[in-house]
């Protein structure tokens, strides 16, 4: 009897050692629910909730999400990402709001060898050991800015001034403008910057206007992006104004009011989903996103940020299904690596902002199908031909 008991205990211990580390897939989602980037972070959170409502299972199994607020602080973004990986043992990371915060989070993800979808635009990051680990859903800045530079050229614009954030996102906008404007023989005559927390940009506006540009491009987003719009109007600027995808925001429209009339912005197709032709595959997903958003949040979407998180969820779920088919067990390095490999073999996943096809050489995954131009008219975004 004693020997039989010993055998049973040994067998139980052996089975325990061989048991899967965890049956469910666990995602760590970081966003800025507070702080200066919360006008982006709150919509990001609502977009992810819409994604979970739209599709919440992989082969009949629920995916668990741990959501944490980084307070719009890059240092907190890093610290929270580490906590999610090292303590919670998440398989995947999604986040966060703001370019500096997202870059900090992505750097930590690469170091810890955890695949990640960035839902804010970031500068290129090192591949890391074993290959790249991070993709992003926001369109590459040169692709977006090329749209407005083409429009400038059609208007006969020869000079343009820039007024944008004094941070990594502002740099992305400005560098994209320099790159595309030069090829179109358009000269950038001013580079004015301001902090997201500033309450005045009068000096920057006066310097930009004094350069007598044919047009002005704005490199601010969310609620802080309204400040130069209002100031330019107060100072009597009547020339063409070009914005960016981060200006697709109900908060910006509310704050800027009539000052925003006429601004032309490059953005993803979701902004004008119902105005797209029936043949466009993004139209169907865009309208489905709106329905899922309303079901998850009890209100209609009014921004361009929540769809980036929604698309990040779709990209992750597509990769998770293929990673799970390899037989790797969630909660293990093998599963993380399977997710990474699946992520970088993503093909034609239709989202709201674009159709995603990632490769180790392409972390953006989108083409010209991900860009439309809209103009603000009567507080709404009208699709331009």
Can I get a quick summary?
The protein is an alpha/beta fold and 385 residues long. It has helices spanning 2-18, 38-54, 74-86, 99-112, 141-154, 168-183, 202-210, 226-234, 250-256, 281-297, 306-324, 333-343; strands at residues 25-31, 57-58, 61-69, 92-95, 116-118, 134-136, 159-165, 187-194, 215-219, 241-242, 264-267, 349-350, 355-356, 372-377, 380-383. It has a six-stranded mixed beta sheet, with helices on both faces. It has a four-stranded parallel beta sheet with strand order 8-7-9-10, sandwiched between helices.
Describe the 3D structure.
It comes from Bradyrhizobium algeriense. Pfam families: Peripla_BP_6. Belongs to the leucine-binding protein family. Keywords: Amino-acid transport, Signal, Transport. Residues 1-23 form the signal peptide. The chain is of the alpha/beta class and 385 residues long. The chain has two domains: 24-139 and 287-368, 3-Layer(aba) Sandwich (Rossmann fold); 141-267, Rossmann fold. The protein is built from twelve helices and 15 strands. The protein has helices at residues 2-18, 38-54, 74-86, 99-112, 141-154, 168-183, 202-210, 226-234, 250-256, 281-297, 306-324, 333-343; strands at 25-31, 57-58, 61-69, 92-95, 116-118, 134-136, 159-165, 187-194, 215-219, 241-242, 264-267, 349-350, 355-356, 372-377, 380-383. The strands form four sheets. A six-stranded mixed beta sheet has the order 2-3-1-4-5-6, with helices on both faces. A four-stranded parallel beta sheet has the order 8-7-9-10, sandwiched between helices. A three-stranded antiparallel beta sheet has the order 11-14-15. β4 (92-95), α4 (99-112) and β5 (116-118) form a beta-alpha-beta unit. The protein is globular. The N and C termini lie far apart (84 Å). 52% of the residues are buried. The model is unreliable at 1-20 (pLDDT under 50).
